[in-house]
């Protein structure tokens, strides 16, 4: 084991755990701009990356940050940035560029209350939809939502693996409460951590956007003899701008289908006491922790409640929700109804919404009230 890679049990915040997850995943470049409540990710990596042969860069702003990590990825390095709502908004143009150029990288977004600068030091879950629809154009996003510091570590590794495997930016959609929560985090030995690296071409030179049968192109690296042209314009397999309806149809359809084809492999969720449930709660991130207690309280009162926790929020798990479409649903989140839209779309009926604006997490009793409301409502 490398002396610079941690191993064992530590008492870490979610932000620090995400940073250690990046190190364990093989991240070698972090470019970012300080913003509460994600600054601790950058602070940790400013110390850790030089210890593992990596580079930390504080950029002039969030636009430069995401541009830098896209460039680092084309240079063959696993790269990451961390931000919060206002910074994530500034990154949207180059988020789309990363999708169009199929550039693997990771964006950790530690959400705070919004809109705009909102509540810099307090909780929010307002970027659920932004992770999927915030950038201009058509693509399929991948976004993960950890509920604990342990998952901040685990999911950051997973985000790198998904980015490398499917060749696109991946978002770790944390929230302030998870990022600033301190708990025990187990960091396993290096040989127990699954690491996925991008496919590399077998031929030199290789067209940078020529897909394999799985619709995912191997990724040539700048400086290894390939002729690379990466552009946000609609392009052909060689990266040459091709401004035609036919080229757009061919290229963007593949961008979408490479994720849809593998969606069942990417989706991840947890079911808690759903087998006999009459009421299903859907939650993610810190809200899921309160929902766990709420379903226990409901059962103590004679209401059979269960929980579907979204570990991966995009691609959205329509199929699993449809399996329970005859049940009554409650959606709890710290916004005014974003996952709610997707849940109701999947089950094709209304769900009881337990929303809360940014500032503090749900109390279990608030979600319990929603469970009781759903249970007592006419079908």
What is the CATH topology assignment of the largest domain? Answer: Rossmann fold
Structural class: alpha/beta
Give helix % range: 25-40%
Q: What would the average pLDDT be, to the nearest integer?
A: 96
- Assign the CATH superfamily of the largest domain: Thiamin diphosphate (ThDP)-binding fold, Pyr/PP domains
- The second-level CATH architecture of the largest domain is 3-Layer(aba) Sandwich
Low-pLDDT parts are: none
Order of helices and strands: EHEHEHEHHEEHEHEHEHHEEHEEHEHEH
The share of residues in extended strands comes to 15-25%
Tally the helices: what do you get?
14
> For the terminal residues, how far apart are their CA atoms?
58 Å
Description:
By secondary structure, the chain is an alpha/beta fold. 38% of the residues lie in helices and 20% in strands. The protein is built from 14 helices and 15 strands. It has helices spanning 14-25, 39-51, 62-74, 85-90, 92-100, 130-133, 149-166, 176-180, 245-260, 263-266, 286-300, 318-323, 339-347, 364-376, and strands at residues 8-13, 29-32, 55-58, 79-83, 105-113, 119-123, 143-144, 169-175, 182-187, 269-272, 279-283, 305-310, 312-314, 328-333, 352-355. Strands 2, 3, 4, 5, 6, 7, 8 and 13 form an 8-stranded mixed beta sheet that branches. The protein has a 5-stranded mixed beta sheet with strand order 10-12-11-14-15, sandwiched between helices. It has a two-stranded antiparallel sheet with strand order 1-9. Helix 1 (14-25) packs parallel to helix 7. It is globular and about 65 Å long. The protein starts with 7 loop residues before the first strand and ends with a helix.
């Amino acid at each position: 084991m490398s002396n610079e890679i941690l191993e064992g049990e530590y008492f870490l915040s979610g932000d620090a755990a995400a940073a250690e997850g990046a190190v364990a995943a093989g991240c070698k470049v972090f470019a970012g701009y300080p913003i509460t409540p994600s600054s601790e990710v950058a602070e940790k990596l400013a110390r850790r990356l030089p210890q593992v042969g990596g580079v930390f860069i504080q950029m002039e702003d969030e636009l430069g940050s995401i541009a830098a990590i896209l460039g680092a990825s084309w240079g063959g390095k696993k790269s990451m940035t961390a931000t919060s709502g206002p910074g994530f908004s500034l990154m949207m143009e180059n988020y789309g560029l990363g999708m169009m150029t199929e550039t693997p990288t990771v964006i950790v977004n530690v959400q705070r209350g919004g809109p705009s600068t909102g509540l810099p030091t307090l909780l929010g879950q307002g970027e659920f939809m932004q992770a999927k629809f915030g950038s201009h154009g058509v693509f399929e996003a991948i976004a993960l939502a950890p509920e604990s510091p342990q998952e901040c570590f685990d999911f950051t590794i997973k985000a790198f693996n998904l980015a490398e495997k499917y060749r696109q930016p991946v978002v770790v959609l944390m929230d302030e409460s998870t990022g600033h929560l301190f708990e025990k985090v187990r960091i396993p030995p290096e040989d127990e951590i699954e690491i996925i690296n991008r496919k590399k071409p077998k031929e030199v030179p290789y067209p940078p956007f020529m897909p394999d049968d799985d619709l995912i192109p191997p990724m040539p690296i700048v400086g290894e003899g390939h002729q690379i042209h990466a552009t946000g314009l609609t392009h052909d397999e060689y990266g040459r701008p091709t401004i035609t309806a036919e080229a757009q149809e061919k290229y963007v359809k593949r961008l979408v289908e490479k994720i849809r084809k593998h969606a069942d492999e990417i989706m991840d969720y947890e079911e808690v006491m759903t087998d006999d449930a009459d009421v299903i709660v859907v939650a993610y991130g810190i809200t899921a922790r309160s929902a766990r207690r709420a379903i226990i309280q409901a059962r103590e009162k004679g209401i059979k409640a269960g929980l579907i926790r979204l570990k991966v929020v995009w691609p959205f798990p329509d199929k699993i929700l449809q399996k329970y479409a005859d049940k009554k649903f409650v959606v709890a989140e710290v916004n005014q109804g974003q996952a709610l839209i997707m849940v109701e779309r999947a089950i094709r009926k209304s769900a009881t919404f337990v929303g809360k604006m940014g500032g503090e997490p749900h109390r279990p009793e608030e979600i319990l009230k929603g469970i009781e409301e759903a249970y007592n409502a006419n079908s």
